[in-house]
Amino acid sequence: MKYNFDLSIDRRHTDAIKIDEMKEIWGREDLIPMWVADMDFATPDFILDAVKKRCEHPILGYTKKSDGYYNSIINWVKNRYGMEIEKKNINYVPGIVAGLGMAINCYTSPGDKIMIMPPVYHPFAWLTKRNNRQLVECPMILENGRYRMNLEMLRSIKKGVKALILCNPHNPGGVVWEKSELEELAEICAEDNIMVFSDEIHADLTLPPHRHLPFSMVSEKARNNSVTFMAPSKTFNMPGVSASHAIIFNDGLRKKFETFIEARELGNGHVFAFPAVEAAFNNGTEWLAQCLEYIVGNIDYVEQFLKENTPKIKMIRPMASYLIWLDCRYMGLSHEELKKFFADKAHIALNEGEMFGKEGSGFMRMNIGCPRQTLGKAMKQLSEAYISLEI
Asked: Is pTM, for the whole model, over 0.70?
C-alpha cells in the first residue's frame, strides 16, 4: 500500500475526546479507546498539506467559499454516486449534527413530531428532544443478521409527523439500504409531506461490493422532499475540521434553509474548512480505496476471532463504515454487567448499545478504525476476559 495504516499514533495530549474523556466516563484510563467514531489513522497528508499551506500566509482572515471548494464536492458526488448537483444546491454547515439541528429548527416548529428508527445514532433523539419536538420512534427489525425498516409500522404511526431523520448508511447497524426500501420510504413520507433529513456521513465508507444510494436519487419525490447531509469528516478522518454540507434540490426548501442560516450567521465556515475539503475530494480517491481495503481486513479479522474465541459474542457484519455492532445477548449479562465486562475485565472502551435506543440493549458498538496491532491487542484482552467468565 502507498499509505501506512499500520502506523500507531499517540493521540494523548491532543485533547482527543476518545482518549481524554475515558476517565470521566469510565473512571479509568487504561482502556483501549474503541468508542468515539473517528479513526486512529493519520489524516491524509494532502489534507494536512493544504492546511499547512494556508498557514503560510500571515493573516487568518475572513474567508469565502471558493469555486474550487464547490467544484470538489460537485465532482466527488458525480464520480462516486452519479449524483448531479450544482453550486446552488450546496450549503456549508459546521457538522452534520449541527446541520440536522438547523433543519429541525428551519422546517419544523416546537411541539412538532419528528420520527427516528432506533437503534440509531443517538444525537437524533436528543436533537429532537432538546429542540422541544416530540420524538416518535419506529424501531427497526433485526432479521437474519440485518436490520430492515419497519415500513408497515411507519405507515400506522406517521400521522402528524413533520420530519423523519434517516441514517443512510445506518449507524450502528452498518446497513446499506436497498433501493426498494428507500423508494418505499420516499413514497410513504411524500404522502403526508413528511420531510426526510438524510444523514449520509458514512456514505463514502460503503464497503465493496455494496454501493451507496443517496436518498435524493431514489425518486423525484425523494429529491423534492429531502435534505441530504454529507461530509468528508468520517471518510478522511478530519471531523475536527468541522466542514459538512447540506444538499437541497427543491428551490423552496433550499431558499428557506438559506434564509434560516443567513439570518443566524451559521454558514460562513472558517479559514481551514474550505481548503481541507477541496484537498480531500480532489486527491482522496486512492487513499480511500486503500483505507476501505484495510477496514475490510479488520472486519474479517474480528469476525473470525469472535467465531473462534468468543462464540457468544456475535457480530453484525457492516456493509459500511468501521463500526461493528456486537450482539452480546447470548452472554446472559445485564446491561450494567455487560458495560463492566468490557471496561473492567476486557479493558476496552466501547459505546453501550442502549445509547442508541432501548432496542440496543445487549449490544455494544466497536470502532475498528485502528491499526491491526491495536485491534489484535483488544481482541486478546476480550478473549481473556471472556474465558474468565466461564460461560
From this structure: yes
